[in-house]
Amino acid sequence: MSGFDLLIRSGLLVDGTGRPGRPADVGVTAGRVTVLAPGEAPAGSAAHSAAEVVDARGQVVSPGFVDVHTHSDGVTLLGAEGGGSALVRASVLQGVTTEICGNCGSGLFPALPERLPAMRAETRITFGGDVGAYANFASFAAAHAGVPRANHLASLVGHGTLRAGVLGPVDRPARPGELRTMCALLDACLAQGAAGLSTGLIYTPGSYAGTDEVVALAAVAARHGKPYVTHLRDEMSRVEEALEEAVEISRRSGAALHVSHHKTAGRYAWGRTERTLPRIAALRAEGMDVTCDVYPYTAGSTALSAMLPPWANDGGLGALTARLGDPAQRDRMRRAIAEGVPGWENTVGNGGWDRISVACAPRHPQTEGRTIADLAASAGADPLDVAADLLVAEAGEVTIISHSMVEEDVRRVLAAPYAMIGSDGVPKPGGRPHPRWAGTFPRVLGRYVRELGLLRLEEAVHKMTGMAAARFGLTGRGVIRDGAHADLVVFDPATVADRATFTDPLLPPAGIGAVVVAGAVVVRDGEETGARPGKVLAL
Fold it and tell me: Where is the Amidohydrolase domain (predicted)?
């Protein structure tokens, strides 16, 4: 046997399958793995020499983590200066070797050519900079190919983006010809290598679509053998009804179902994981292909405009801004939050403005970290008026954090055998992003494995690697076996922990010793090496 490019010696191999860890050495040649018995590659052996050796004594060697739910579609396109170097590197520093973006129905593609200029403005608001909009997956991948990255990126096709790229941001059903065009664009993107179809049925313009429209699109994903991935239409008081809609879409379309960041949020839904999780388990027992993902926090993050009723966003940013400037329209929004709107999740109505804090408002940094209720009290104003004024002043570019869940529900989902791990990271420049973008995976390993014993180490690693890779078609990834892609993490199980907080959200974790992507060491002793072997994966 010839020498290795890299040899990881004397670690505990946790291979991503869920099987018990075992001592082993791992060799890497030309970006592929060879698993060796302990000591099979003795130091100084000519047959097993290596250009670089990593000593993993006392540490775990696992497959690289797969973050199944991100909104990192455009952060590297902004560059280290535009995106912020800490923001760009946060994911790989926590051991993520593949990110899956295009979630919640939102992405950077596809669109009809005539819609691309209008969509650029919308993507700027969603992703925090001029990241562009693209006709299809191939052009999206080509744009990323020109920007070096440390880890890999795969992308779903966002239903909301698809709808906006054909219809525009309008509140009406798709006409038959428009739906055929949407299906054709989706089909082309999936054929080019996109990972599946995502919906965000709480968010406009995806929320304007009925079930039949989504069924037609999910059927296209099913023909490609790719999943239907959904942010449910309601994760709060109507979460069970929304889950049943997702089940119907899966059954009618034939697509495998994956429920994004499963939660039961808001005071009227706390505890309902005691009903939703048994329902998913029963569906699986009946033979349905259904899974979910979860992040290990009781707070979520999204756009401030999503706190407003869907009709407020009809027509896009310009129409929203005009409505926010009209006192009568503001009063209508206030009533909608107080009374509810049929079919609308109504985050504020289910929780309150005191649970909504500003994460990023680039022109008003003094608001960041404060709740809308607190800002309103300080100004002697109504919270809806404070939110509306901030949205207008920021041209819609306001991200919030919603403290809407309880720990018991988070733990139940984490422990579910079909739940994998996704950060739901929203890496927009500036402000105080949710710490999950820098801390999700070490938090699971440190808090929920080592400290609380909620999960076995091998079980947690499986959720982060092999289970995730199998769901999203990442062939040859997520497991350590001979011939697999050399995407690897070396971490200390005794010290691994998240350090990112809501006040300092990009602090890198403790205990991540090395990260290997495509056979190259991209993180050593918790610091980036500067290697950039990552690429966009066509699946």
Answer: 52-523
